[in-house]
Design a protein that fits this description.
By secondary structure, the protein is α+β, with helices and mostly antiparallel strands. It has a single domain, classed as 2-Layer Sandwich (Beta Polymerase, domain 2). It is built from 7 helices and 5 strands, in the order H-E-H-E-H-E-H-E-E-H-H-H. A 5-stranded mixed sheet has the order 1-2-5-4-3. Strand 4 and strand 5 form a beta hairpin. The radius of gyration is 17 Å and the shape is elongated.
Amino acid sequence: MSDEGAGDFLARLTTKLTGAGVPHMVVGSFASSFHGVPRSSQDLDLVIDPDPTSLRRFLADLPADAYYADSDAAVDAMQTRGQFNVIDMATAWKADLIVRKARPFSVEEMKKYGLVVSGLAETKGIGCTDDARQKSFFDKVVKIGLYDAGLDYTKAYTNKFVCKGVGLDLVKK
């Protein structure tokens, strides 16, 4: 699986969650990259806070020929505060939808922070990075001996699929 399509899948998924009335926030490697700390992952992670009606609306908006989502697993996840998956059939990207835990801190996190951004993500979207940030990270890991200084760090990242404004509509104003 390549990175191609991940940002588009995230945009489509968050649009469907918003349309169904499901509060959500992006977490995991995409959120980390959005904040300028690049991490690699093979899936997307979102914390969601559905009620039965909004979850049904969300699941109904996932055509079976375009997405795989097990409705029974989704309902069970909502009841047990667990997680379920949605898979984009076109790209094979998987999203872990993690139901918000029933604890006061989790509720306040979602209300207070929404999607927090910094760096290039503030104006260019989720996952956006630049050579200066990557070089700074590379220099630090070389200094502590994790990478060889001769490694071409510029081959470790690309902005081909990011820096296109994905997620800017989710930023708390």
